[in-house]
UniProtKB/TrEMBL annotation:
<dbReference type="GO" id="GO:0009425">
    <property type="term" value="C:bacterial-type flagellum basal body"/>
</dbReference>
<feature type="transmembrane region" description="Helical">
    <location>
        <begin position="214"/>
        <end position="238"/>
    </location>
</feature>
<dbReference type="GO" id="GO:0044780">
    <property type="term" value="P:bacterial-type flagellum assembly"/>
</dbReference>
<keyword id="KW-1133">Transmembrane helix</keyword>
<keyword id="KW-0975">Bacterial flagellum</keyword>
<keyword id="KW-1003">Cell membrane</keyword>
<dbReference type="GO" id="GO:0005886">
    <property type="term" value="C:plasma membrane"/>
</dbReference>
<feature type="transmembrane region" description="Helical">
    <location>
        <begin position="44"/>
        <end position="63"/>
    </location>
</feature>
<comment type="function">
    <text>Role in flagellar biosynthesis.</text>
</comment>
<dbReference type="GO" id="GO:0006605">
    <property type="term" value="P:protein targeting"/>
</dbReference>
<dbReference type="InterPro" id="IPR006303">
    <property type="entry name" value="FliR"/>
</dbReference>
<dbReference type="Pfam" id="PF01311">
    <property type="entry name" value="Bac_export_1"/>
</dbReference>
<keyword id="KW-0472">Membrane</keyword>
<feature type="transmembrane region" description="Helical">
    <location>
        <begin position="69"/>
        <end position="93"/>
    </location>
</feature>
<keyword id="KW-0966">Cell projection</keyword>
<keyword id="KW-0812">Transmembrane</keyword>
<feature type="compositionally biased region" description="Pro residues">
    <location>
        <begin position="282"/>
        <end position="291"/>
    </location>
</feature>
Length: 291
């Protein structure tokens, strides 16, 4: 007759609950996986399937009751780790969307905004177009599979433990967040430079011929040149986008390592051993020099 104790049941629950929490945290925050158009049932089913695959490879779990105070703290910590890894890659897509916002404002399409169901806000047409291109490029280079591989690797670099994580992960996320502005401006730089030259030419033309209506001819010209430059730069955006995806996945892989250094006080220095009969050396007091 098979008998099961409460300790065995708690161990089975913890071996599936804690990895599932980190996986669901990543799925809820990562791009493509966390899109609002994906049903919640599909997200939970994917998380359970991944947890059943990864759970046998997870290192030894802490001996804590999942329903205790320590077990709930582990659940919150794992959810935070998974959400931070997904948010790290989400920053890459935010940089691409920022490039679209800068391009739209420069082209004069700042008024052409649409409701974005993913962010529950408004974004420009160029921003949504670049976000769709980035999503297709992310799927074409198998970035979603590499992200799941980094998630499975995180259980080895940052094992599940009841010890609180250090604050290095928050600094890593803040440093990586600055990539939104630099990468967004770099992606939008061709359009911004072309439209800057166009506006200078229009200014010179208006100065030479004041009878021309700047508002009548300026908007169609800047809009047409913006679309032309965007169409010319799209074939060359594959390399910078792939580089951004690799940097984002590598940052998500390094994120658990920055949190792996737990806040453990350093050990006290060992006492100096003296030979029998030896006289310990004492540093002489430092006296200030007299002028």
């Amino acid at each position: 007759m098979i008998t099961l104790s409460s300790a065995d049941i708690n161990t089975w629950i913890a071996s599936l609950l804690w990895p599932l929490t980190r996986i669901l945290g990543l799925i809820s925050a990562a791009p493509v996986f966390g899109n609002r158009s994906v049903p919640t049932t599909v997200k939970v089913a994917l998380g359970v399937m991944l947890a059943m695959i990864i759970a046998p490879t997870v290192p030894a779990l802490p001996a804590a009751d999942p329903m205790s105070y320590a077990g709930l703290l582990i659940v919150v910590q794992e959810l935070l780790v998974g959400a931070a890894m997904g948010f790290t890659l989400r920053i890459v897509f935010a940089a691409i969307e920022m490039a679209g916002e800068i391009s739209s404002l420069t082209m004069g399409l700042g008024f052409a905004t649409f409701f974005d169901p993913n962010t529950q806000g408004r974004s420009s047409a160029i921003s949504q177009f670049l976000a769709l291109v980035a999503t297709l490029a992310f799927l074409s280079v198998n970035g979603h599979l590499v992200l799941l591989s980094a998630l499975a690797e995180s259980f080895q670099t940052l094992p599940i433990s009841g010890i609180p994580v250090s604050g290095g992960g928050f600094k890593h996320m803040a440093d990586w967040g600055a990539r939104i502005f630099s990468a967004g401006m770099q992606l939008a730089l061709p359009i911004v430079a072309a439209l800057l030259i166009t506006n200078i030419a229009l200014g010179i033309l208006t100065r030479a011929a004041p009878q021309l209506n700047l508002f009548g001819i300026g908007f169609p010209i800047t809009l047409g040149i913006g679309f032309l430059v965007l169409a010319m730069t799209l074939p060359y955006m594959a390399t910078p986008l792939q580089k951004l995806f690799l940097q984002g996945i590598e940052s998500a892989r390094q994120f658990p390592r920055s949190w792996a250094a737990r806040d453990i006080p350093p050990p006290a220095p060992p006492a100096q051993r003296l030979a029998p009969g030896a006289i310990p050396r004492v540093a002489p007091p430092q006296t200030p020099l007299k002028n």
